[in-house]
## 1
Amino acid sequence: MSMSIPISSFDSVEIRENTLVLCDIDYTLLYPTETESSVNDLHELYTYYIRQYPFDREMVLRLASDAYNARYPMRPTDPEGFDRMLRKIRSTSGCELVFLTARSPNTVDYTASNFIQIGLVPEEHIIHFSDTMPKGKYVSLRIPVTPYANVVFIDDLQSNLDNMARYVDPAKLRSYLFVM
């Protein structure tokens, strides 16, 4: 198990010069407003749309997903703390923020709509979709960390923090476990 610092606010993240900040999305930046009945709602929406468009499964999935997301929008976990962290990143020399999510690359539009819901402009941010690939391995293959003196990784799952520690030099890495 890697050394990680539990946090419940982005205010606790230390930003130094020349730092790459890798931030998870689900249950770190955002959390769903789902309830116990939301799974039933999704099933009902799917059933409704499959009756409307029985031969267009892609249309059914898109319409049911859009209706579900409108009914159960994502919410920011710590909007004020994130805003302060983002301002600090932008004002600190050599720092960059990259979002790293285990979402599928097929969720680009959904992710963009989540960002818009919380007041972020998706085009102003770098978002990587690791899908089923472990996040540390993904970073080792797709996100260059060598130009940075420091790497900060913020995630809600200890297993992701542990995996990142296998691929990023521990002298550079500071891991934060986001807990709500």
Note: The radius of gyration is 18 Å.
## 2
Amino acid sequence: MSSDHDQGQTSSSLWYFIGATFIFAMPNLMFGDLAWWVRLALLVLGLAVMAAGFVQLRREMRTKRGTPAADGGTAPPAGSSGRDER
């Protein structure tokens, strides 16, 4: 039952990307006469929110596939070194 619940949840990284889209698009569409420095500040803010979304996405992907590591992060499952072992 819990796997059905997990599949139905939206990842929080998605909301970072949606927020970044609004930060990029809405001020330019609604306020065409913004000063250049305001547009630049909104561009930097949008890039920061998008970077935070990538960090959150990476954290979520690690949590789904990995196990806790000694450094507080997560590591790949045991037996997968990431190399081809022929």
Note: The first helix runs from residue 2 to 8.
